[in-house]
Amino acid sequence: MAHGGYGKRRVAEGKRVGRRSKGPGLDKKLKPKAVSLKNQIRSIERMLRKDLPPEVREAQETKLEGLKKQQEIHTRLAVERKLFLRDRKIKFFERRKIERRIRRLEKQQRTSPGQAQDMEIAEQLSKLKEDLEYVRFFPKTEKYVSLFTGGDGSDLIDRRNRLRKQIKANLVAAAASGKDLEGTVFLHHSNIIL
Hints:
Shape: elongated
Largest sheet: none
Number of strands: 0
InterPro entries: Efg1 (IPR019310), EFG1_rRNA-proc (IPR050786)
Distance between the termini: 64 Å
Number of helices: 4
Family: Belongs to the EFG1 family.
GO biological process, one term: maturation of SSU-rRNA from tricistronic rRNA transcript (SSU-rRNA, 5.8S rRNA, LSU-rRNA)
Helix content: 55-70%
Number of domains: 1
Region (Disordered): 1-34
Structural class: mainly alpha
Keywords: Coiled coil, Nucleus, rRNA processing
């Protein structure tokens, strides 16, 4: 007992004393490893190449269709998230800029005495509200085309107009089907989770 204390560390009454574990992984409960969609699809496709009874084959084919739909949804959501994360800053600033202009014009409209000036302000307001609709309801799967930057080339203007028509059609379809319009919105800056 040169170092002192070894006598105190003896095993008392057959119980183990110390901090060592009982073995690798014995303390943890074993969980089955999650198999990826890609691997599940591949294994079912391999199974379908073999001779199987018709009911088993049919069940596996329906399972395969379901897995392929899940994979398609997963890849679409990944694309949407990638585009959202890339474009959220510019969309936020453009939305704020448009909202500021709308507030300014509404204030002018309340204070302006002239009828001709009111018509001009109302026209500008409707244009700005269309721009706000463009920013808020831009398609999730498209790369964002900015309203204020990028120049005014004819191809860029054509693309913006095509996207505006698509957005209006999506909004009309959502209203006709009774969907919540905010559900079709590309997420605002505060809601980042997809």
